[in-house]
Each structure stands twice: as structure tokens, then as C-alpha cells.
């Protein structure tokens, strides 16, 4: 059988695509930072990280290159020690991990959770989802003024990343509900509609976005409400405490005694540096003004509160002990 040139072209194209998918080079940079291979176990990751901690703690270098590499090692450990993040990294590399974090930070949908609320379903992925109501009218409340019953109100958790809460964002949520075909009619039809949630910069955690009478319509019934409760997604570096941001960081003994400089990505999207030129005691807390969350309705911001922990060497050599004694002028 003779194959046309067009068909040959598509066969070659498909073959190249399959070859690229099957033989793409995996991203192993994070494993390289810890001196490991992608086949390593969780305990090997833990052991390698602890050994590198000791190595960098004993190092005398205080150069920016040293600081950057140590930061990268901590990042590698943070990803690879997390089972879910590691599986995404193994499959898609850092670009895939960053994309997944971005998608999951907007809205984390849970089909079982939504099914429990209204016996319907919830579809969609990424930055939007679709709510489908089914005209359920049980557990209704009576409005004494007009003797109409109010339908069910639904409440959903809305997971949003720290970065999106800091900057503010808009979410459009399409959904389908039952509506009366016309006023005075008892016939119901399905209608596609949409809700828009505006998250202002610095919106508090657990804030509720209430859409009154946005749920299913029904005969002789007041539609229930739809409520979204903001739940700030967990951030690997920063935690929120009101208008302040809280962070814990580790210093080498050298940094704790002589000063340090730390750079990290702020929820604003900018790289931010915190420094100290004075000795830092273990457990010491420092406040950096204006590096916290936006305070709603004002131009002010909360503070960044950092707790410092110091990595002490497990032991010193006699030479190191003598050097330390000389520094402090002690016999």
C-alpha cells in the first residue's frame, strides 16, 4: 500500500512528539544541590541536608555566593522533603512545580466537600470552577413577613495564596442554577451565570464574600445565599498574623556573631533583603517595619517579624577552641 506524502509527514510528526515526551531530559538540579539522585529515599534527603547544614555552619566564608548557594540548598530540601511537591518536580521540573503552585493557590476545589453542601457537583480546574445546583429545597427557613421560605444557603472555602491576598485579585466563578421560567410561573429552567469575587489587598483571613439570593430559585421560595470564606493558603516561608508577616530563619554561628544579609521573595513579588550588623542570640526576634501586609483602606503596611535560630557546631577542634579563646581574651 502506498502512503501519501501528507500521511508520511503526520507519522513523522507524531513519532517526534512521542520521542520528545519519552526521552525528555529530567530536571535534577535540586537533587544535584543535595548531592543525590532522583532515586534517593526520604531518609537520604534528610541525612544529606543535615550534613550540608554542618558543612556550611563550619565554613568561614561570608560571601554572597556562599549565601546564595545555602539558600538554594534550603529550597531544594523544602521541595524534595515534601512528597507532593517532589512528585510534581520529578514529572515536570521547576516550571511545572511553579505552575502547579500558582494554579492551586487561587482556588483549591474539593468535590467531596462541595457535594456535602448541596448534593450537586463542582467541576473545573486551575483558576476557575463551575458550581451546579440541583433545586434542593430542604432545610428551608420561613420568612414571616411574606410567608415565603428561604432556600438553602451554601458556604465554600476559597483558598488563596499569600501573594494574591497581598496584591489583591479578582476571581470569576461560573455556575448553573435553577430559575423560574417567568414571574408567576412554576416552571424551572437551568441558567448559566457568574459570580465575581474581588479580593482587596490585605483582605483578612476568614473574610466572607456573601452573594445574597444567588442560589436556586423555587416556587414560593426566597433564593438562598452563596458565601465564600477566604482561606489563606499555607506559604512555605511566611505566615500571616493579622497585618504582620512572621518568618523564622536559621543563621550560621558566624552570621549570628558577625552579622548577616538575607534575601527572600516578598509576597509583593520583589526580592527583599533583611540585615543585621549586631550579634543575634538564639531565639531573638527582630521587627522590620513596613514589610508586612497592606492595611485595608490605608497606605500603611504591617511589619515583618523574624525569629532567628542559630546552628551551633556539634564540636570544635582544639585549634578552633584556642582561636575562640583568643578572640574573647580568655585563658
Automatic annotation (TrEMBL):
Gene3D superfamilies: DnaJ domain (1.10.287.110), Urease metallochaperone UreE, N-terminal domain (2.60.260.20). Residues 29-93 form the J domain. This is DNAj-related protein scj1. Keywords: Chaperone, Coiled coil, Signal. Residues 42-69 form a coiled coil. It comes from the Eukaryota. SMART domains: DnaJ. The keyword Coiled coil applies. It comes from Anaeramoeba flamelloides. Residues 1-24 form the signal peptide. InterPro entries: DnaJ_C, DnaJ_domain, DnaJ_domain_CS, DnaJ_subfamily_B, HSP40/DnaJ_pept-bd, J_dom_sf.
